Amino acid sequence: MTIADTIIEETPHAGSLYLDSFKPRLMDWTAARVFAAKNLKIAMRYPANFLIWGVLPLLWLAPYVLMMTALGGPGTSTSFTELSGFNDFVKFAIIGWFVYQYVDASIWSVGNNFRYEQFSGTLEPLFVTPVPRISILTGAALSDSIQTSISAIVLLISASFLFGVSYALTAIAPIIVLLLMMILALYGFGFMVAGMILVFKDPSVLTQFVDTALFTVSPVNYPLQALPTQARYVAYLVPSTIAIIVIRELAITGVFELGQFLSSATGLGITILFFWLVGIASFKYAERWTKNRGSMGGF
Amino acid sequence: MNGDKESIFQKMWKREGLRAEIRAINALAIKQWKVEFSYPLSVLWFIVMPFLWFIPMLIAGNAVVGGSESAALGELVGTTDWLSYIAIGTAFTGLAMSMFWGTGMSFRREQSVGTLETLMTTPMKRSTIVWGSMMHNLQHGGLGVILQLVAAVLFFGVTINAWGILPALAIVALSILALQGIVFALTCIVLLAKQGWMIIEFISSALMLVAPMAYPIAILHPMLQYVSVASPLTWTVESFRGFLMYGFAAPGIMTAIVALLILDVIYVVVGILMFRYTERYVRRKGALSQF
After folding, report:
1. Which of B45, B201, B208 sits opposite A205 (nearest CB)?
2. Contact (CB, 8 A) for A209 and B45
3. Which of A195, A277, B14, B251 could crosslink A283 through cysteines, CB 3.0-4.6 Å?
4. Of B42, B202, B209, which has the smallest distance from its Cβ to A204's Cβ?
């Protein structure tokens, strides 16, 4: 018997056995885990990236800090203290950039995940696997959260050292809880961006536009009070806004207030629910739209 | 018919001289515009990008100053009009980014779409490909500079000295030479490292950091101040802003122009030599089309 005969004989059996046991699910955690492990394996092949992505944002953060120093004087300004309630704008900005790294990652990595698969030529094979697409995106998001955490910590440590600031670690547990909740909400947001990129293809413009718009309304370098009134409402639609404000306060003051924590956790819980529902719905719609037009593999 | 083909072929090989290269540069710039117009959203984005980047800076500046005049900036540079200082300084960002990214990655872009080897077999100089891309990005980025300045004047009340417009354009022309030197060096990195985008991101961000776009170099660490002085971007931004804010009465303008001229010569010569050597090296290694 030839090898070809063996394959022909075995294939229908193997295929039917798998397909017989296959049941469509909303989420396949095994697939998500496998996909996360695959992405992490690729990331580990380029270890310098972790360091570079930790240091590179320093070059984007530093111009803001230097500009604020040149305009307001070293470290503090009356106007900034009146607006934000904090007297050190350098300390204020660094923690904002630390948290914003996760927003950046949700847009660039999770949102663009299928685009990267498309470039690697693996998008269509991936889409014919009997796995919910959301599991693939969740896997990408999980691996990305690990990578972003490493880079964000490198950024926080190096920026704190360079600009001579320090943060209180007394409220580290609530900070971690809020950060995790924000990351979860950002997954939903990333699904939404992934859907948009499936439809519009050219990710550079769309991604940069979304990123710049979110960065502008987010309280990263300045407090929400610095924004025009309408922009403040838009800011609360960004999944990271509540987290940036509360995490910053906990990290700078080190004072934990249960009431404030619970209300922000509730706010973030609602944000998670909202963005997951909207994210999954918009991704599914975008996927159907793209498939109907036969433009899944198009550039 | 056959005779016609031969004559075109012979004409192609006979082409030489500066005019032929300028025609090729122009054709490459037009080709890139045609490609970009296939993605109209991209064209729009790269034009409005510097302006959008300016808005967070404006909000941050307003948060720390709380008004239209900054006493701290006045002590450092002699003007309290922080809005004009930053708006004019950062207007140059788009052009510089366009040059670094668009031109620096020109070889990689041709490589990605599979036209690099075809271009390399045409009877034009290799560096013409880079100059052609530069011409396109100069037009593209230049449009962004104009738009940002117009928007800054119309929406934010920035005042521009009309007498300084022509000299400021002359400064842009001078800066292009030195920037082209940097771009040649970036092209070398792309040719050698292939996926050189991270290095370009790093170098361009570092050059932007030490350039006095939104703050004077006096605010930088002394070590970074030395780097800043050696960067053509520093002198370009200083003189560009000086002319547009004060006209011919701009302080320290002669020093900035002389420094820019010296850096032009150094950067262009070093850049062209690096490019020549790298291009030959890559071709000798047969690694031109490798990814």
Report:
1. B45
2. yes
3. A195
4. B42
Contact B238, B256 (CB under 8 A): yes
Using CA atoms, how far residue B178 sits from A10, B182, B213, B231, B267, in Å, is 67, 7, 17, 9, 5
pLDDT, averaged per 10 consecutive residues of chain A (299 residues), comes to 57 60 75 88 77 80 92 85 89 93 83 75 80 86 89 90 88 91 90 83 74 90 91 87 92 88 92 92 88 72
**Which residues of chain A make contact with B53, given a CB cutoff of 8 A?**
212
Cα pseudo-dihedral B17, B20, B22, B28, rounded to 10: -140
CB pair distance less than 8 Å for A80 and B64? yes
3-state secondary structure of A202: coil
In this structure, is residue A4 part of a structural domain? no
Q: Per the structure block, which two tokens stand in for A290?
A: 């793209």
How far is Cα B70 from Cα B51, in angstroms, rounded to an integer?
Answer: 22
CA distance A217 to A211: 10
Q: Is B77 exposed, middle or buried (0-12, 13-18, 19+ CB in 10 A)?
A: buried
Mark yes or no for CB contact B201/A83 under 8 Å. no
Residues B213-247: tens digit of each pLDDT? 889 999 999 999 999 999 999 999 999 999 999 88
Tell me the average pLDDT of chain B: 83
Rg from Cα positions in chain A: 22
Extract the tokens encoding A73: 């004087």
Nearest CA in chain B to A55: B202
Number of domains in chain A: 1
User: pLDDT for B16-42, tens place per residue?
Assistant: 778 888 888 888 889 888 887 777 667
Residue A56 within any structural domain of the chain:
yes
ipTM of the complex: 0.82
By residue range, what is the domain housing residue A232? 30-292
Distance from CA of B89 to the nearest CA of A (A): 12
Give residue-wise pLDDT tens across range B246-263: 888 888 888 989 999 999
Q: What is the dihedral angle through the alpha carbons of B31, B36, B38, B43, rounded to the nearest 10 degrees?
A: -150
pLDDT at position B204: 84
- Strand pairing partners for B25? none
Note whether B114 and B184 are within 8 A (CB): no
Would you call B63 an interface residue with chain A, using a CB distance cutoff of 8 Å? Answer: yes
CB B76 within 8 A of CB B216: yes
Q: Is B177 a residue whose pLDDT tops 70?
A: yes
Q: For residue A171, give the DSSP letter.
A: T
Let me know if residue A137 belongs to a domain. Answer: yes
DSSP character string of A99-121 = HHHHHHHIIIIITTHHHHHHHHT
Q: Average pLDDT in the B75-93 region?
A: 88
Residue A17 covered by a domain? no
B92 interaction partners in chain A (CB closer than 8 Å): none
